[in-house]
Amino acid sequence: MNLIERVVAISRRRSPWICRLNAGSCNGCDIEITPLLSPRYDAEQLGVELHGTPKHADIVLISGTLTLRSREAILDIYAQVPNPKAVVALGSCPASGNVFAGSPLVLSESLDSVVPVDVWVPGCPPRPQAILDGIARAARLLEDGATKSQLQNWQGRLS
């Protein structure tokens, strides 16, 4: 690894960029993400920066239930995120469908069966402190080379 690659690797460890994806939630999780960018929680003190494009992201935050339409969007966005990458699932919806479970358009599988989820943040909606902790855990996994995309031990499917 040459000097430039080492500098890029160190800077990526210290400042994870986040891409947020709402897969079809009630917006409760999204409302709890907003305070993270305010002075009260100040996620930028950890180097966390929210970006609109997945092509520059290190961590993908996914909230909402897994639906027929969102499944393809999730796969498309996940494929655009460069390696190494981490996925953080926010709230109860990605795990179980929560209040939307049983709906005809909601898939009965969890998000982890479609993309490898590294950190689950429980709650409906999860508190901003819990989301920030989940992002910090995902950043540590990226730094340690221990995300599922890095270890390639994920048993789901990407198709």
From TrEMBL:
Record-stated family: Belongs to the complex I 20 kDa subunit family.
Segments spanning the bilayer are none
At the top of the EC hierarchy, this enzyme's class is oxidoreductase
| Superkingdom to which the source organism belongs | Bacteria
Q: Tell me which residues make up the NADH:ubiquinone oxidoreductase-like 20kDa subunit domain.
A: 26-136
**Which InterPro entries is this protein grouped with?**
Complex_I_20kDa-like, NADH_UbQ_OxRdtase-like_20kDa
According to UniProt, the name of this protein is NADH-quinone oxidoreductase subunit NuoB
Keywords attached to this Swiss-Prot or TrEMBL record, sorted alphabetically, are:
4Fe-4S, Cell membrane, Iron, Iron-sulfur, Membrane, Metal-binding, Oxidoreductase
Organism listed in the record: Azospirillum lipoferum
EC numbers on record: 1.6.5.11
What is its cofactor? Answer: [4Fe-4S] cluster
* A molecular function GO annotation: metal ion binding
Source lineage:
Bacteria, Pseudomonadati, Pseudomonadota, Alphaproteobacteria, Rhodospirillales
